[in-house]
Amino acid sequence: MTTLHDTRVRGFASDNYSGIHPEVLAAIAAANDGHQIAYGEDVYTGRLQEVFAAHFGDGVQAFPVFNGTGANVVGLQSMLPRWGAVIAASTAHINVDEGGAPERVAGIKILTVPTDDGKLTPDLIDREAWGWGDEHRAQPLVVSLTQSTELGTLYTPEEIGAIADHVHARGMKLHVDGARLSNAAAALDLPLRAFTRDVGVDVLSFGGTKNGAMLGEAVVVLDPSASEGLLYLRKLNMQLSSKMRFVSAQLIALLEGDLYLRNARHANAMAARLRAGVEAGIDGGTINGVSFTQPTQANGVFATLPEGVADALRERFRFYDWDAARREVRWMCSFDTTEDDVDAFVSELARLTS
């Protein structure tokens, strides 16, 4: 097969638009020769357990899955009884971007809380953390955070720790959607466990696809007492890969060395460059009518644009509306976004708004 797409086309729509990092491709190829036992009994999945333990500590369990929605659904399902509910920000991926899978596949009620920056606090959690013992109300038993959030913002370890203490004191558990956990680690300049296991997170979804993998995430159980039946839930939710070695090999490639950090640091740096370029244009008068709606703390930039500018800019660079009603857009950077990509984007934005 020949290449079917124009490899010169670049975009800022999603970090899922990027290709596969060459080191990840090499890992897939290295795992390809010969036969290995299927369904996770292979040596690569065994090695992956050691790699996750090196990052998060002894006793953790990692369950590779196909995608982020699957990781969230399977992980949350393992934390809850049938009558349990999850408290999450209204902007959470499990609420707005998973096609209703937590509700329809896992049967989980999501209790949402509005938040301006995508982050929960103990006070915000308490808006829905009530009604235990009331048979008429789905029981709030898990709180789910996203790190970094869907709005590109970050929780500090102290903030997560305060939430964990608050949640655990009320008999609930803490889940983290870590589709961009590596971006958070890079931005905070901290080990992965410093803002997860060490501060009380019970179960997390670890993301690889947005950070250079072809496909593959993992449900990581940090507290075995907080999760039950994952071995079976992964299968019945259609997330058990027969040739699991190829999912595990990708995550090993990211995590065995520092590739996860190199990729995330670059993506974050490109987002910072994009924001700085637009800010310079605003200050210099070459970019007009553009304002930012969130701090740029990871690899996403959120802004509002003048009427008609988004569609005109999309003729060269694909990106998504975030809130079309107020002309808010999201620009995402990836491990393979280049400085030239960013500078060309800023230049085109200046041309359209001058």
Q: In summary, what is this structure?
A:
By secondary structure, the chain is an alpha/beta fold. It has 13 helices and eleven strands.
What descriptors fit this protein?
16% strand, single chain, Aspartate Aminotransferase, domain 2, globular, 354 residues, 13 helices, 7-stranded mixed sheet, Aspartate Aminotransferase, domain 1, 2 domains, 4-stranded antiparallel sheet, alpha/beta
- Give the CATH topology of the largest domain: Aspartate Aminotransferase, domain 2
Q: What is the CATH class designation of the largest domain?
A: Alpha Beta
H/E element sequence = HHEHEHHEHEHEHEEHHHEEHEEH
The radius of gyration computed from the alpha-carbon positions, rounded to a whole number of angstroms, is: 21 Å
Net shape: globular
Number of domains: 2
Structural class: alpha/beta
- Look at the structure and give the mean pLDDT: 97
Put simply, the count of helices is: 13
Number of β-strand runs:
11
> Residue share in helices?
25-40%
Report on this model:
- The protein folds into two domains: 31-257, Aspartate Aminotransferase, domain 2, CATH 3.40.640; 260-353, Aspartate Aminotransferase, domain 1 (Alpha-Beta Complex).
- Strand 10 (320-323) and strand 11 form a beta hairpin.
- It contains 13 helices and eleven strands.
- It has 354 residues and is α/β, with parallel strands linked by helices.
- It has a seven-stranded mixed sheet with strand order 1-7-6-5-4-2-3, with helices on both faces. It has a four-stranded antiparallel sheet with strand order 8-9-11-10, covered by helices on one side.
